[in-house]
Amino acid sequence: MAIGPIRTAIKVDFEKPATAQAGFHNRWHPDIPFAAWAKPGEAFHVECFDWTGGQVKNDDSADDILDLKLDGVHVLSGPIGIEGAEPGDVLVVEIQDIQPFASQPWGYTGVLDKAAGPSLLDNHFPDALKAIWDFDGIFATSRHIPHVKFPGLIHPGILGTMPSPELLAKWTERETELYDHHVEIKSELMVARLPMEEGVYAGQSITPEAFAKVAKEGARTIPPREHGGNADIKNLSRGSKAYLPVFVKGAGLSVGDLHFSQGDGEISFCGAIEMAGVITFKCSIIKNGVKDFAMNTPMFLPGPVEAHYGPSRYLTFEGISVDEDGKQHFLDAHVAFKGACLQLIDYFKQFGYSGEQIYLLLSAAPVQAHIASIVDIPNSCTTIGIPADIFDFDIMPREGKIVPLDMGSCAYLSKK
Amino acid sequence: MAIGPIRTAIKVDFEKPATAQAGFHNRWHPDIPFAAWAKPGEAFHVECFDWTGGQVKNDDSADDILDLKLDGVHVLSGPIGIEGAEPGDVLVVEIQDIQPFASQPWGYTGVLDKAAGPSLLDNHFPDALKAIWDFDGIFATSRHIPHVKFPGLIHPGILGTMPSPELLAKWTERETELYDHHVEIKSELMVARLPMEEGVYAGQSITPEAFAKVAKEGARTIPPREHGGNADIKNLSRGSKAYLPVFVKGAGLSVGDLHFSQGDGEISFCGAIEMAGVITFKCSIIKNGVKDFAMNTPMFLPGPVEAHYGPSRYLTFEGISVDEDGKQHFLDAHVAFKGACLQLIDYFKQFGYSGEQIYLLLSAAPVQAHIASIVDIPNSCTTIGIPADIFDFDIMPREGKIVPLDMGSCAYLSKK
Amino acid sequence: MAIGPIRTAIKVDFEKPATAQAGFHNRWHPDIPFAAWAKPGEAFHVECFDWTGGQVKNDDSADDILDLKLDGVHVLSGPIGIEGAEPGDVLVVEIQDIQPFASQPWGYTGVLDKAAGPSLLDNHFPDALKAIWDFDGIFATSRHIPHVKFPGLIHPGILGTMPSPELLAKWTERETELYDHHVEIKSELMVARLPMEEGVYAGQSITPEAFAKVAKEGARTIPPREHGGNADIKNLSRGSKAYLPVFVKGAGLSVGDLHFSQGDGEISFCGAIEMAGVITFKCSIIKNGVKDFAMNTPMFLPGPVEAHYGPSRYLTFEGISVDEDGKQHFLDAHVAFKGACLQLIDYFKQFGYSGEQIYLLLSAAPVQAHIASIVDIPNSCTTIGIPADIFDFDIMPREGKIVPLDMGSCAYLSKK
Amino acid sequence: MAIGPIRTAIKVDFEKPATAQAGFHNRWHPDIPFAAWAKPGEAFHVECFDWTGGQVKNDDSADDILDLKLDGVHVLSGPIGIEGAEPGDVLVVEIQDIQPFASQPWGYTGVLDKAAGPSLLDNHFPDALKAIWDFDGIFATSRHIPHVKFPGLIHPGILGTMPSPELLAKWTERETELYDHHVEIKSELMVARLPMEEGVYAGQSITPEAFAKVAKEGARTIPPREHGGNADIKNLSRGSKAYLPVFVKGAGLSVGDLHFSQGDGEISFCGAIEMAGVITFKCSIIKNGVKDFAMNTPMFLPGPVEAHYGPSRYLTFEGISVDEDGKQHFLDAHVAFKGACLQLIDYFKQFGYSGEQIYLLLSAAPVQAHIASIVDIPNSCTTIGIPADIFDFDIMPREGKIVPLDMGSCAYLSKK
To answer: Is residue C401 part of a domain?
Structure first.
């Protein structure tokens, strides 16, 4: 009756590119063939590349972040068919464990070049930046952001089921509408990434016809949507359960973009501590759950195991819906959150950090971003709290001049 | 050497209207005379009306919510001068305690009529609603929302210092600009409440000249701003420290809008459990702190004492930047938060609650609203988590039909 | 339908001795008349003296601790009859709130003279000691133990139901047997306090016959027993539920010995922060619960609201079953706990505290005492953890000499 | 600058007995040669057998527990020399990670036969028992104790440094004295395990002379002592730091007896969920720390990451110093703890469990055992709290008959 070691449904081979291996894809589309199957109640491992498929190196330059090829991201592991799952069911995905590879005990936080797409503070930090994090047991430390150490709350940035053709069409339609509107008003903002044939990968067993369809129609993996996707929820860690709606027979579960740790908001787009690793799933099915739970977007239960800091150890900053130019916005939580982050950055610069270091840190460390109020016209209030206990010096506001420490430097572009 | 009972700096007399008593005001303006003074290090009580000055009754009709007179809100206690505080200093306000009055062991959550101003889901719930909460020791229960019980995390919705004339002018300018823009585009949205002479109250000792000035220029108390104000931060409870910038000599601390409990977002505008009560302060001053901490908006440290639910007891819902009509917005956390709330409401209706009851509950109960990701174009992901342990039945998603309970009703308009 | 202010079932008058007032008693006996009645589901306040009935002063001498008259302790409020409770039922006591009196915002920790009875470290600290604590909002601070501040987890040291005659007889028999054995072996230890006529108080309405019986037979209130009693459980605070067996009709609930805070073990006998105050109860009855739950001793559920420190903020010390003289005991958790406390005291002396100060602090602060192992012959391992965040200096073990602070002094006997 | 995969200082080969491999030992003695060395600041893995060296099988009979050979336990990995450590220093051992072997995703809880040595309730459960636990990701479940699931707080039961000859002599002297006393009084209790030549193993590189000395003098590994040892502290998990006194040059760190989870007290002697696995250390040295910290026994800091249950989710039972026969003991925490455990067991039998199942469960699940009071003569009060959230049914005491579930059976002796 003993349970043996559990099988690995999808394996990574770091010697070959992801696009030369079975078990990976980088678009959402119902015609991508399932790479593996699992039974309800069966535990299985899924190995994952980091989101870029290995484009970032453990070095002291941000050049690789600048040079990132984004047409082929995110590299996802899957799709995995779950036996018995049918449209209208809810797939319950228990995350039994997540670990980095022992052979790659490190990850990175990046800030992309502004031209590559928006990050929260791209007007303030337009150039590519990088910090490397070493996995020191359950903790992360960084030679690029010294005097900080915190345990990882490891989670997948992306977890989702395959859309039905109808849902996929709805996604494309609404995102195209937004995109077209911005083209029309001559906005320079990158507001959405629409289906695009460059860089598409849909596994090894796809037919040319299906591939052509996926390439043309496949939804990009950047945003979270009704099926899950790139939700970047930092608490979806070991022991969590995600409840995902099922849109196709077998569900088609895919996963990727693993994070060793992430702050709420993942504020620099390549935020979090990005890593390759192994995730262990056990799935079950709630028949007709979508209707019974009136489900439109996923639900989840975080796991019971987290790092705990006392509530009074979170130094917390406020932001309101007034932007850096003093302009008043209407209940804009995005602007308010930006303001809270900028306030925090200014505060921490007094200790000797560069703004770039704190921007990277906020993306990676277990900071809590709350919507405090969203009805007090014209200002929303959002807060961002950072745990004092992740620093090895005293960050509390006190009487008397702060003596800055030597904080070294994060990784910049080599040509700067 | 014994410390005696502490003094009450501002007292409430429920037999008279707030506007006939010293110690209260309802605008932010540097010319409002200080109602009391306190020394750094001295503990003192401040009594507070509820935000409306007593307009809401403990009954089963929402008529009083419909009839709320808003020109005279919020009724604040203050301003209190803190000896030695000067512009550029940081005022450290320790909240030593907050209690409801023993004679008024109840509070209320309201949804305003849509015409009175925006609440998060006013398109869904346009009419006035109300729920009364009884303070059952440290817990709140409601005859209008049965099967729920939770401890209060009592806090002031409003805590702020008096603005300087320059800061006041900046507020009015930027809010007027927003207001004018909306008038120009013929928006029907109430986007900001500008200074207005009706209903102004500035204490008993003000000169007619000063009063005229306050009436004309005084900033409304609705939004949070750089001085604190109506931030509605649910964790600013017993044992917390707020760090507020000082803009005028003596700081001019005012407080009001006490909440027995509030959910993140305070999503219905008269959300939270509104109450009258007593707050106990102890203040200190950090000289030149505004510059030394690069402070633009307040900072705070929550208190160490909170209700704790295991992380895996928060059933959590996701929202993305797609609105109820299926329209795609760009990284809009407000839209995403709305989606998460609607999803939660739909789920809980399966248990027999009305949408109105859950809307009121979300405003009042200790729900956690997080910004999960704000860079994954075009969707933000926000989450809202509700603790299972505040219900006396099992709320977890499970296989099998849910059997709805008899959930009674919240308070509606009598004419409906 | 509004709920009004709640009634006070038992009132304290500080102008008169407890023994001249209705509502108090200091022995456990079924013939003590009930001082008040309450209905199931009804909230009511009960006012309490401190355990000594006011013998200790807010001053800087331990003389009053030395002079404590112990024959009349503990001063309990009650007994309160709960309508409908019958032997065999379980009385569910919800502690809705506990507060100190606003007029007495202080408490004390004492170490009794060794002759008055055992405290954990009486061989090390044989003389009477005292520390006064000021209630600084939700926090306690002490002029006698500086650099420490922590929120109170207020609780009743004593909460119990009245014993039946049979249970009372069983108590007396088994405690007398222990007492007699120690007399026989000429032990000098005070091992039990048997019924004693001096100092007995049983309320104002008792008949002379009943009084004589109570005086002769009434169980002393020192130990915890099957009915609850002096359990000194530090987590039985606001929002807790105690499940007490009922032995007499009406249950006969009594309460006293309120503590603003206590460390696990209450290691100095007059440990904890002793105070007078008001407790608010709401009771319900589970019929036949004693049998259905196979209940022999009370059960309880702590409240949801506590101070939370991160687990890694507890500096923890170990003790084993080897005493100060190096003698090996067999799996003795008492000896092991003593060792852990002594180890902690020695450590903190390096920071400038006296052993007396830390002994008092351990009795009062929220320290956690765990039984780690109790089967590893011949040693038990017990641990005591103290939260770093209650100190305003860094207590962590680090490389480099500790620089002691000026720690002043606790209160000693004046004649010393 | 990249950090590579970390080395494994001691390896387990499951194909051979521990006693045929380098890197293991089962006595404490300064003459056992170091099996490996590590530098301060260097991370390294240490592989460990389960405490018995593999004597227990994943099956449904307790026969292997009955047949356990105890002369060769505990199988420890080590000793490991830490460069630069000298007597009087404090060795800071950071536990970076602990994992079961992927190839052995299971552990066991056993109750030894009473003749093999005391367990807390051996009078109630004298025969050998066993439960197998499967590691379901971060959770443990058992076919022998259904309806229970909880995350592991993995920790080493044993972690210690090598004693000096003087310390070793002191141990033997005091334990022999206890032993001899019990022989003298003709006690049948197994009170201590003295040095014994049978079963001794001291690694592969020891000289015959040294081996003879170790065999004769080596301290058994059963109890915790001043160097650490078998402390069985359930919170010494990932991210913890242990501060151990150094008695010999190089410290001589050894580790073993890994537990996937343990309840406070480890009440059945082979309690906890025993497992083989890999622990990752990083050590540093505080010079002269023993004197500077006045250290007599180890200190530690738990890690920041634990399962968290709300405080009000711990159903808690009390015990007093009265034994099962009604006999009164004097402030005996051991007796009180036993009473609390028996009370809990009786309560849970109502749900359909056998007493044996709960006895095993209490040893393995994250139960909290506190010393509530230890000065209230003649009774100590100890409490044991069990988290409701580890059960998949409602364990709370409520009105109405409990309907027992089918709870299957734990593993018994086959001949029963």
So the answer is: no
3-state secondary structure of D223: coil
Render pLDDT for A126-148 as a digit per residue (tens, 0 to 9): 999 999 999 999 999 999 999 99
Residue that finishes a domain, picked among A246, A275, A301 = A301
- Which residues in chain C are contacts of D385 at CB distance < 8 A? 302
Q: Tell me which residue of C333, C326, C335, C325 sits closest to D172, measured CA to CA.
A: C326
Q: What is the mean pLDDT of residues C193-214?
A: 97
The parent domain of residue B355 ranges over: 311-390
User: What is the pLDDT, as a whole number, of residue C1?
Assistant: 40
- As a whole number of angstroms, the longest Cα–Cα distance in chain D is 70
CB contact (8 A) between residue B138 and residue C238: yes
Structure tokens at B364: 């009042």
Q: What are phi and psi of C376, to 5 degrees?
A: -95, 80
Touching check for C257 and chain D: CB below 8 Å? no
Q: D307, B309: Cβ pair inside 8 Å?
A: no
Q: Which residues of A173-198 are buried (b: 16+ CB within 10 A; e: fewer)?
A: ebbeebbeebeeeeeeebbbbebeee
Cβ–Cβ gap D223/C193 under 8 Å: no
Name the pTM for this structure: 0.95
In this complex, how many residue pairs, one in chain A and one in chain D, have their CB atoms less than 8 Å apart?
Answer: 100
Tell me: do C338 and C222 sit in the same domain: no
Asked whether B221 and B74 are in contact (CB, 8 A), the reply is yes
| pLDDT at site D160 | 98
Question: Does the pLDDT at position D176 exceed 80?
Answer: yes
**Cis, peptide link before residue D79, omega less than 30° from 0:** yes
Residues B345/B359, Cβ–Cβ less than 8 Å: yes
Structure tokens at C209: 């016959």
A380 in contact with chain B, both atoms CB, cutoff 8 A: yes
Task: Sort out which chain B residues have CB atoms less than 8 A from C151's CB and list them.
Answer: 238-239, 303-305
DSSP labels, A255-284: EEEEES---TB--STT-S-B--EEEEEEEE
Q: Which of C97, C139, C409 best probes binding to B when mutated, by most B CB atoms within 10 angstroms?
A: C139
CA pair distance A254, A241, nearest whole angstrom: 15
Is D329 part of the contact surface with chain B (CB cutoff 8 Å)? no
Contact B350, A293 (CB under 8 A): yes
> Phi and psi at residue B43, in whole multiples of 5°?
-85, 140
B340, B348, B362, B367: which is closest to B405 by C-alpha?
B348
Q: Which two tokens stand for residue A156?
A: 């997948």
Contact across the interface for B331 and A118, Cβ inside 8 Å: yes
Strand residue runs (E) in A127-223: 129-136, 139-141, 150-151, 155-160
Using a CB-CB cut-off of 8 Å, the residues of chain B touching C5 are 102-103, 105
DSSP-derived letter for residue B198 is T
| Closest C-alpha among B225, B216, B120, B212 to residue B163 | B225
Residues B168 and B100 in one domain: yes
**A369 in reach of chain B (CB within 8 A):** yes
Report yes or no on B1 lying in a domain.
Answer: no
Phi, then psi, of A56 in degrees rounded to 5:
-110, 135
Question: Is A139 in CB contact (< 8 Å) with chain D?
Answer: yes
Inter-CA distances, C76 with C171, C220, C363, D374, Å: 19, 11, 21, 21
Clarify whether residues C324 and C258 are in a common domain.
no
Q: What are residue A312's phi and psi, to 5 degrees?
A: -85, 5
Q: pLDDT digit string (tens) for D108-136?
A: 999 999 988 788 999 999 999 999 999 99
Enumerate neighbours of A (3 or more CB pairs within 8 A): B, C, D
Which CATH number does the domain housing residue C334 bear?
3.10.28
Q: How far apart are CA B34 and CA B13, in angstroms?
A: 19
Domain-located, residue D404? no
